[in-house]
Amino acid sequence: MRTFPPYRAQVVAEIPITTREQRERALAEAGYNAFNLPADQVTIDLLTDSGTGAVSTRQEAAAAAADRSYAGSASFFRFREILAELTHYPHILPVHQGRAAERVLFSTVLAPGKISVSNTHFDTTRANVELTGAEARDLPCAEFADLDSLEPFKGNIDLPSLEALLTGPEAGRVGQVLITITNNGGGGQPVSMANLAAAAKLARAHGVPVFLDAARFAENAWLVVQREPGYAGKTPREVAEEAFQLVDGCVASLKKDGISPMGAFIGLTDPELAQRCEGNLIATEGFRTYGGLGAHDLDRVAQGLREVLDPNYLAARAGEAARLARLANDAGVDIVQPAGIHALYLNAGRLLPHLPASRFPGHSLACELYLEGGIRCVELGSLYLGTLDENRELVTPAPFELVRVALPRRVYSQGHYDYVAEVLADIAKNPERVPGYRIVDAPDFLRHFNLRMAPAA
Ligand code: F0G
Predict the structure, then answer these.
(1) What's the rounded Cα separation, in Å, for the pair 130 and 124?
(2) Atom 19, ligand 1: residue with shortest CA distance
(3) In this predicted structure, what is the pLDDT of residue 121?
C-alpha cells in the first residue's frame, strides 16, 4: 500500500535555528535538564507527542464555533457524543488533562494499602496512584526484557504474574488493574486484544475493576490491525471500540490521540462510581459539562477524534516512525524493536558502552542530540527509574538505558526526520566522545522533571 500524510500544511511556525555556542549556554543554564530549556532554543522538539500535534482547519473551525455556556454547553454534548459512540460507556466526564482524570478516578477507587497493577504505569500515573497512599506495581510481560526481539506485543501485561497476584496473599489489596495502551513506559509497545481480554477476565473473576489508560488508543488499534492474528480485516475504529468494551472504563489524555493541545476524559460503565467521580470532578476540576476545559478544547477534541482513526492517517504516521527507525539503525543506533508509533526508544546503553549506568548514558545521549543538533528528547533509564542514595549517587540502575524520541502528530516531515538521523549518525561515528553526567541536585518526588546535572569530570 502506498502511503503519504493525508493533509498539507496550511499555516506554519518558524523553527529556531541556533549555534552550538548558544546551545551549550542554554543547556548549561538549564542544569543539563531538557525540561528546563526555553523552547525558543530548541530546533526539533521531540520531547513529547502530548499536546504538540498540529490541529486541522476543521478543528479550528469547530473551536471557533464553540459554546461557552457554563452548564449544558453544546460543545460538551458534541464531545460526549463522539466519546460515547467510541467507547460505548454511558458515563463520560471531561477533565483538563490525563493526570486530572487519574487523580479523580484513583482517589475514588484506591486507598492507602491498595495496589494498582499495570503493564506499566506512566510517570504521572504512578505519582497519582502513590498520592492516594496506594502502591503502583508494574508487571510488564517477559518479552519486553529483550529489547531486540521482534515480538509484536511487548506492551502486554504479564498474565501469569497477574494471576499469581490475584490469587496470592496480596489479592485483597488489589484495587485496580490498569492497562496502558500503547505502553508508553514500556518502549511504546502495543498491547494485544488477546492479552487485554485475558487480563480483564482475570480481574473480573476476582472482583477487581479493570481500566484502560487509553491515551494512545488509536495507535494501539492500528498496531493490532497490523500485527494480531484475526484482526487484519478490521478497521482501527472497530478494534478501538472492542478494546473499550472489554474493560470497566478508562482514563485518557486527549492531548495524544485526541490531537488537541488540551483535554482528557474519564469513561465509566458503573453509575455509582461515575457519580462519586463526578462529585470529585465538580469540586476540583469544574462542572460536569466542561471539567476544567475551555469550550473550544471540547470541540477541538471532538473533531480530532474523528480524524485520528482515519486509516490513511494512521498508516502514514506508522510509516513515518518505521522510516525513522530504519534511518536510526542505518546510522548505527539500535532502538527498542519493533518500532511503535508515538516514539522511538534509542538504546543508549548499547551506543555508549564507555559510560556506566551511574553516568547516565541515556541522559548523555539526549544532551548530545541537543548540543549537536538542537534536538530535544528525554531519557528513560537510570535517571528516571533508578534509585539513588542520600548523596544522589545511583545505587540501583534501571534495567535499560534508553532515550525516548517522541513524534508529534502532523508536525514534522521527512526532511526534519532526515536531519535527526544525520545528527544521530554523526554522534554514532564517535560515541566515545560523549561525556557522562552526574546529578547536582534532585528532588525526591518526580525528580526527572526538576533535577540539575553537570558533565562528569
Ligand atoms: N498516561 C499516559 C500513558 C501518558 O503518556 C500520559 C502523558 C498521561 C497518562 C498523562 O496525561 O499529560 O494529559 O496529563 N504523557 C506525556 C508524555 C506527558 O510525554 O508521554 P496528561
Answers:
(1) 10
(2) 48
(3) 96
